[in-house]
# Entry
Amino acid sequence: MKRFAWTQPTSLASAAAFAETTVADAMVALRPDTHAGHGAVLQAGGIDNLDLMKEELLQPNLVISLRAIPGLDKIEKQEASWRIGAGTTLMAVAGHPAVQARFPALATCLNQSGSPQIRAVATLGGNLLQRPRCWYFRSIAFDCLRKGGGHCFAILGENAYHAVFDNEVCAIVHPSSVATVLVALGASVELTGPNGATRRLLLEDFLVRPKQNVRRENDLQPREILTAILLPNPSASVRMAYLRLGEKQAFDWPLVDAAVILELDASSVCRQGVICLGAVAPTPYRPRAAEATLAGKVIDVPTARSAARTALDGAMPLAHNEFKLPLIETVLRRAILRAANPV
Amino acid sequence: MISRRTFIPRSDLPVAAARPGSGAAGDRSPKEPETATRRDVIAAQGPDAVAMTLTVNGIARMFEAEPRVTLAEALRGALALTGTKIACNRGTCSSCTVWLDGTPIVSCMILAVDVGNRAVTTIEGLIRDGNLHPAQAAFIGHDAIQCGFCTPGMVMSCAALLDRDPRPTRDAVLAAISGHLCRCGTYPHVVAATLAASEEAKS
# Structure
């Protein structure tokens, strides 16, 4: 890890004033052909920042800790939504009674993310903003497109863990499983700028596809702080499930995961279904055609099977990840059925 | 008496306790962030060694280290508490597990400067009134050790579980150690030891 200075401001305004670069900008600035500084970056739990700094992929001059800023770890009920402070640890979110009661799919996902030791430190905001896990991206030896280079090594390289959708420019999968659930739940993010002004947008719109900008996974701007995640309060008729398949049962990234939200009427007919797939595309992926097949149907095995098959439409597997297609079908079929018939 | 620990020079650790003021790597001159106000610059510390105080095993310990020094490095270096082991140094193996305010965390993935006034408990602090923690005694009794490198971390996770939930289920034990890697494969003995240490087993 290279040397850096450290500061721990006690106000959002002060932290935002320091934060001249996003982590993504600071990493691109490391390229030998740029003469920009290495930047000043924000840090909450620090799990991903430390990982990047140890690999020397991130070499900031200044690390700005958000930990001393009061109020970033609050979970509170608002009029039509729940507001989760971005500095809340994954463990605290998973253990919150309202999250367990109203957003069980989120609690399930959080309890499978990282290890207990990581969940005790990692924050919800940091989880959403973590950089991708692509091994070319994470290796200093590869000057890849996402780090400002000219080439995606994964598309024609070792790509077993990479995207099967939206993978023409850069084949990362989004690193956050939590984002899979939050996108399905219609979550919004609250971003606070240096003058205290906030902007809110759907998480789905905040996340950036490679075709929009290959050097970043989200629209976070310099001097902007992700301060909260807002979850619309689900109605009583909403059922949900989260399911993943991976190589290990614990402490591993999923090969494929799925979040399913169903709104059922009194006679168990699905009014609306939302599906979000993770680890299959550079952003959490909503197969809209598959969602459409659920509306107006009683959710049974044939309905779930048909929706799961439809979700594969448009898939473009790479040389080593075609195995993900049957996994998508299986995990999605099971998630749809589990949402309709909770265990 | 000389030991391997005192003999091997700690030149790899940028902890400055032994050599105050000597910037270990000195690879880059500090550069003030262009946007910071004068007051903010004063508030920033480093990159040279800064004075820190950590409360470890109930005792406030003062030392100097650069901001880039992790808690695990500070414990093993400046504070000479080498019971905490660093293996992967990436939060992947959990061998460096210590408690922060009673909760297990990986000490390699938190900066010492970020710990602040939170209480750190290491394997050295687990002994109570001269007695081993029940998890420690059970690990010995059930031979839950082979090479021993993962053991301090495993013990910290199992002891925290038993303190929180004196009668854990087998699933709870598996969840508690889900972050730990043991290349010797002691997992079955670790689970057996932890279950045996539970109150239920005693009653």
User: Anything to note?
Assistant: Chain A has a mean pLDDT of 95. Chain A touches chain B through 37 residues (CB under 8 Å). DSSP finds 13 helices and eleven strands in chain A.
